[in-house]
Design a protein that fits this description.
By secondary structure, the chain is mainly β. It has a domain of 91 residues: Jelly Rolls, CATH 2.60.120. Helices cover 8% and strands 57% of the residues. It is built from 1 helix and 12 strands, in the order E-E-E-E-E-E-E-E-E-E-E-H-E. The strands form 2 sheets. Strands 1, 2, 3, 4, 6, 7, 8, 10 and 12 form a 9-stranded antiparallel beta sheet that branches. The longest helix has 11 residues.
Length: 133
């Protein structure tokens, strides 16, 4: 879903497995795995959003998050940037409405990338799953 080139030349990604998706009513649940050091822009979703940390760690804004941490975001709330820890981060997420996202404070994302010596890469191709499976 997201990609970056790290300071050492390696690439890091956000990997998502969509567990359940419906367009009517709209909702999405997913399993997300962030590679170590992966940085995701500050953003929000057009729905209430819940994140539950399963493994590893990340920083969301200034907050350190580890296993068992629960983040609840009301409709339209922004969070991040998200920076995966040295062992990466694994999360279970639920969006109870339109899961599309919008960006916020691009300067915070650019600062996090600069601090890590990382470069954002084009997003990998994404095709949403069909609902008839």
């Amino acid at each position: 879903m997201r990609a970056q080139r790290n300071a050492d030349g390696t690439e890091a990604f956000v990997h998502e497995k969509w567990i359940a998706y419906s367009s009517e009513p709209t909702y999405l649940s997913l399993y997300a795995r962030y590679d170590p050091g992966m940085i995701v822009r500050r953003h929000g979703h057009r729905s209430p959003h819940i994140v539950f940390m399963l493994e590893g760690s990340c920083t969301i804004g200034d907050e350190e998050c580890g296993p068992g941490m629960h983040v609840e975001l009301p409709y339209g709330a922004a969070f991040g940037p998200i920076v995966a820890g040295p062992d990466g981060a694994t999360m279970f997420e639920v969006m109870m409405g339109d899961p599309s996202s919008w960006g916020d404070r691009p300067e915070a994302f650019e600062a996090a990338l600069r601090s890590a010596g990382a470069t954002a890469l084009p997003h990998p191709e994404f095709r949403p799953p069909s609902e008839d499976r």
